[in-house]
């Protein structure tokens, strides 16, 4: 929590933080200096815990893991958070023609990542073929009226590329409902800001700047907006003499080859920013930039390598601090 010599009724920026989803969360919020923050902190942590209980791949008792173990042809009622994330995930999957796909759970594990990872090596072709046979967002059917999701058989959802963004949005909604006029929410590097700080300024955040220490900083203004960054190039490993990205292309079942160093997307909500940053990273620098421009996404793609020149769309340029 912040300290201040301002009067007790004056608004200041307080900071709350904790742990969730294998990472840390932080909230900077504007409130009276003497506001009791412990109940709010507890409410924020409880909100995150509820999301984890629904969508974690690391908990065998989560709603998501129960779905993953479901019998072929079974329909599963989804809790509100789970439904909202799956609904958005399927929309982005369709719009990106499968560059984003929430059914990559077995593929991710086959390449040695995630909660149910196998050995970190090139998978046996039979293992890879089996994982691909149970993946594919088109296999899913969502009954939006009754909020039920079909388990077609063997499909493993993995919402890691969208759930953190949703958690950011959920915390922002809770803060607004509690009457907090302005806040910056951060869950594992996915951020959303709304309202103004006591000095009248909007929230400013630093995103991935460049491939070396000489690159100019990239500062984005979050005036009721969110930003998410995927950095597949920095999360790589060597397998059988080859460098592989941790980001799996759902369309091929293999690690992304033209992996950008980082992709940042600004959107009205963190859930979509999170999903689209992953989708563009999967597409690669060239195709990702073209897609973002055609579809009006506020995106910045940083090619791998020292001194690389970022590719930015007009929507992203408009969000930069001048």
Automatic annotation (TrEMBL):
Cofactors (names): Mg(2+); Mn(2+)
Cofactor note: Magnesium. Can also use manganese.
A Pfam cross-reference name: ApbE
Keyword Aminoacyl-tRNA synthetase: no
InterPro entries assigned: ApbE, ApbE-like_sf
Reaction equations catalysed: L-threonyl-[protein] + FAD = FMN-L-threonyl-[protein] + AMP + H(+)
GO molecular function, one term: transferase activity
Keyword flag RNA-binding: no
Binding positions (Mg(2+)): 161, 274, 278
Swiss-Prot/TrEMBL keywords: FAD, Flavoprotein, Magnesium, Metal-binding, Transferase
EC number: 2.7.1.180
Residues forming coiled coils: none
Gene3D superfamilies reported for this sequence: ApbE-like domains
Protein family according to the UniProt entry: Belongs to the ApbE family.
Name this polypeptide is given: FAD:protein FMN transferase
UniProt organism field: Luteimonas wenzhouensis
Lineage: Bacteria, Pseudomonadati, Pseudomonadota, Gammaproteobacteria, Lysobacterales
């Amino acid at each position: 929590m912040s300290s201040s010599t301002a009067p007790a009724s004056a608004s200041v920026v307080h900071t709350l933080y904790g742990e969730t989803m294998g990472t840390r969360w932080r909230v900077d919020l504007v409130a009276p200096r003497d506001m009791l923050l412990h109940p709010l902190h507890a409410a924020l942590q409880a909100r995150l815990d509820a999301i984890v209980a629904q969508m974690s791949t690391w908990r065998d008792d989560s709603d998501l893991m129960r779905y993953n173990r479901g019998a072929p042809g079974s329909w599963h009622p989804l809790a509100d958070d789970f439904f909202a994330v799956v609904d958005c995930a399927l929309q982005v999957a369709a719009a990106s023609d499968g560059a984003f796909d929430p059914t990559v759970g077995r593929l991710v594990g086959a390449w040695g990542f995630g909660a149910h990872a196998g050995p970190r090596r090139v998978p046996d072709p039979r293992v890879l073929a089996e994982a691909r046979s149970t993946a594919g967002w088109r296999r899913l059917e969502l009954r939006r009226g009754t909020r039920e999701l079909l388990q077609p058989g063997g499909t493993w959802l993995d919402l890691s590329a969208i759930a953190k963004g949703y958690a950011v949005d959920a915390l922002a909604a809770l803060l607004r409902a509690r009457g907090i006029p302005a806040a910056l929410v951060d869950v594992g590097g996915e951020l959303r800001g709304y309202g103004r700080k006591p000095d009248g300024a909007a929230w400013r955040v630093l995103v991935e700047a460049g491939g070396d220490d000489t690159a100019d900083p990239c500062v984005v203004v979050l005036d009721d907006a969110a930003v998410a960054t995927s950095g597949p190039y920095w999360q790589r490993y060597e397998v059988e003499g080859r460098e592989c990205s941790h980001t799996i292309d759902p369309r091929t079942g293999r690690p992304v080859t033209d992996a950008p160093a980082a992709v940042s997307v600004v959107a009205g909500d963190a859930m979509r920013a999170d999903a689209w940053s992953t989708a563009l990273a999967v597409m690669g620098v060239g195709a990702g930039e073209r897609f973002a421009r055609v579809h009006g996404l506020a995106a910045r793609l940083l090619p791998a390598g020292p001194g690389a020149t970022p590719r930015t769309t007009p929507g992203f340029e408009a969000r930069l601090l001048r």
